[in-house]
Amino acid sequence: MNEFENKLILKEERYESGLFPQIPNFRKRGSAFVLTEGSNDDILVTEHTTTKQIRKGKYNMLIEISTLPYMKELTFTSPSKEAAYSFDVYVKAVIQVDDPIRFYENRNLDVDAYFNNLFLLDVKKVTRRYSILSYDGMDNELTRKLSSYNTIDAATGFSYTISVVDAQPGEQAQEYVERYSKQQLDASLKKNARELSKGFSVIFEEAVMTEVAEGRLSEMEAIVKIQEYNNSNFETKMNQLNKLREDGLITDKYARDSIKTALRRSGLNGLPEQEDAYSEYQEGNDSEFDDFYEEEE
After folding, report:
1. At what angle do helices 252-265 and 274-282 cross, to 10 degrees?
2. Which residue has the higher pLDDT, 262 or 46?
């Protein structure tokens, strides 16, 4: 017997019928009693059962079966929209014996295989439409689909209702989702940083030009002030890029490309020594890079 049968078939014991059989005590809450292994059909012991009926049947076994609701947990592996990855679908079904005689006749039923055959085809139809990166609403759709079945199965003797359906990406899919999310976050942070940096530069220049308009600065003083600000920004960016490169968060190529962009914004276009300048800087040779910068200015 599998786990499911062990939980619901509570007791199997020998029964002595004889000439004057005793009617088993059947008034136990949450249990049904079946007399079997006789010369007649199995019978369910109730208030209508008679000693004559038992004597004629010559029954040898008394079976106690639970009729209380029983929670069965089921797990399916089902493919996602990305064929290489799958979902783990978790289902809780509440099972209850409705026909104890028929249930006992099917006592060797593999319940996991029964539900697998019953549900898996429709579960796959649903999960194949969802990506492991976006599966909101899939649980609700699975619940509606699985709850639409006829929950009373006369062939097995039990009924069932679906109480919980939960689906999550499988282990390999979760690793992919984690990598993808990290890449998206890194890209978003870099984009936001670039946009924020450009915004600060524009705001500073506008503020300086406002001082010129108000007569607090001359045009020459404004040019010098903006250039000093740009130089300071450039130095800060160099330090930040070098730190990110040392921490392994960006590649040398990304750092060099960023420096080229910063140099162009500073008005230093087409410098052949740009990459050499950054290489010297990242090795800590600040003085040589300063010489390079001043010379090109």
Report:
1. 120
2. 46
